[in-house]
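Ex. 9. Protein: Microtubule associated protein.
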Amino acid sequence: MDTSYLTSQVNSIVGQLHGLFDEIGVCNHDRKSREQELFASLSDTLQSHLRRADCEKNDMISEAQQIIELIKQMEASLDDVAKHDRMVEDPELRVTFPLNLCLKVLKEKYATISKIHRERFEQIKKLARALESYSSHLEPSFVMIPLPPTTDGASIPTSFDLSPSYAAELDKEFTRVYEEYTRRVQVVQSISEEIVKLWVELGTPQAQTDASIVKHHRESPEQLGLHDSDLASLREIRDKLIEEKRGRERKQKELRTAVESLWERLGIEESDRKSFLAANRGCSLRAINEFQDELNRLNELKRQNLHLFIEDARCRLQELWDSLYYSEEEMLDFTPAFSDVYSDALLLAHEAEIERLETLREQRAPTLELIEKHRTLVNDRNTLAASSQDASRLMARGNKGERRDPTRLLREEKMRKRIAKELPKVEAELRRILEQWENEYGRPFLVHGERYLDEIQPPAPAKIPPRSKTPCVPTQNSRANSVRTPSSMRGGGSIRGLQPPFHSKTPTGNGTLRRNAGNPTIENVIKSPTKIPSRVPLSNMPFGNNSPDRRPPQSHSSDFRSKMPPPRAPPPKMRDLTSVARQETPQNSFYADTERCNSVMSLSTSYVRQISQEDVYDDRNQHSYMGSSTSHYRPESPHSTFKPFNPAASLQDSNYYNHQRHQSQPQPTCYMQQSHHPEPMGPPPRPSSRQISNTSTVTTSTSRSENWETYDDASEPEIDATDVYYAKMRAAQGKLHNADSGTMNGKKFKGIRGVGMEENFVEENGQITRIVGSDAGWTDDMETY
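Predicted structure tokens for Microtubule associated protein:
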């Protein structure tokens, strides 16, 4: 239908209307009003239709715009793109005409975005619900990010952030909340368990415990509350119980210490102690009361036996006094120790004094240890000196049921070396510590009431020996240039030093002095101490070169004597190597004490010339030495017996060997014949008639050894290689004397020529006696080449 049709219809209707008006006879003005009404109604109808169409158009445009806005919001919530990037116009997200087609396209796109949005929201909603389930036990302010609505039927807000970044943040927040939740659960569980255990240990009654804690502390501790306030209340309960437990333990410990000390003092059986402790474990009030009752019972028992405790305390005091080296005056200063009124106060005074002395001993422990070591060394030195004076120890034989001591002399030598090594060090260190202590405290350090520093003062310097008056004293240069004797030929392998000028104090056999009768011009010349004199060829000896004249040595009934090596010279002490002071004759000298004293008195106003160093290879003196040995060793029974040494007869006995040595091979005897038992030693360096003093001259040093033996009578030493050699030498010398035995009277002995001496042999009563310059026969006047 077009407008021409409408116009024709309007004209037709208007014409018909005028005809009707004419027929009706309507006047002109009524006719015009009715035509205007008709035209107004027609216009209103058209306008009404126009308005309805316009409204429909506007509604469609609004719907399209709304759909576009929703699509944009959902895309923004699902994407991490920035807002300015989202503001870029999408050509599909705009209102186009026709509106029906535009709305259709927008609705299809909206459905797609809405589906993706709903799925993302469901995922985040599950995580948010889990987060809320854990955060509900914590404080409301603990969650730090906004959460989407998680209630059922709740509308999905299109503007809520559902981007992947939000999902990651939500997951991180969930992890934080879960860890905190787990930590608090563990804290609540541990605190609750501690509370329950403390209730059990303290013996808390059921009415005084919290039933909820007992019920939920294992299975569901979160029911006890995980807020900070809940944790604080649980900690407060636990701290109160711990403090109460500590107080009970402290009380129980004090009671137990007192009870155990009384148990020790009263001697309670161990089984009773264990049974009591097993029955009263823990910190319950019942156990504490039991300990208190036991303490009361023991205190009552202690009061009944108070005197015993005081006596024990006094014994302990005495031990501390002894360890601190208290004198009697210092002990008397503590008057309670001598009170006879027994009381608790007296016992407490003893205990306090014991505690003070123990503290004092701890403070002085290093000094006391050094003092004890020093006293021990001094005691060992004195014991060793006293033992060395007993010559009978060298001949001691084990009685029935007693064991022999073959290593006694070896132990004495080791002890002597140890004392000589350690004692100076200990004295120096002790002197330094005591001086430091006295400077610090301003009073002397007392041991048994005496200043101990006075007992360890350094020894006085050695006195300078008097100048020798003998004109034949060798010069210092010649003495320094002298050759040392080989150690294999020295007696006992001792170390020898230079002999300084001094006056010998050793008494002679008959108290007379001996002068060198040799030529002074020859005596001034120092002979080599190591030069071996001319000897008889070994082929002429009975024991050499398998000679048919070789005679086996005669065996003696003494088994231990047959295996002894030749005697050796005494070794010097190590501390004597640098000593130049005049020494006293040791008490274990070859002479008796009475004769020694007389001889020393006779020598007090005399001087003995300086003698030259002896030659250990000089065999001339072996005659008198071995003669003395054989005269003292004469078996008179199937078992050997020994004759005590007689100094007065030493000279006569020493020459008996010159007459008897061709009959039998003599056995080497002890160098110290007065010791009543043989002593295995090295080859004899000097005649036995010569009295060896502490200041006798050796190769390079002065020796004053008092205990020079290195083997005991019960030892089984190996036979020295030099034994055979000296046996051969003695046999060779015996042959020479056998040939001249009938013409020895008044003649000089044929052998190795000595320098500075004259020897005469006289045969008396079948014995050959050597007559020397003096009767003593002890000076070193027989110098050899």
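Check your answer against this statement. The radius of gyration is 65 Å.
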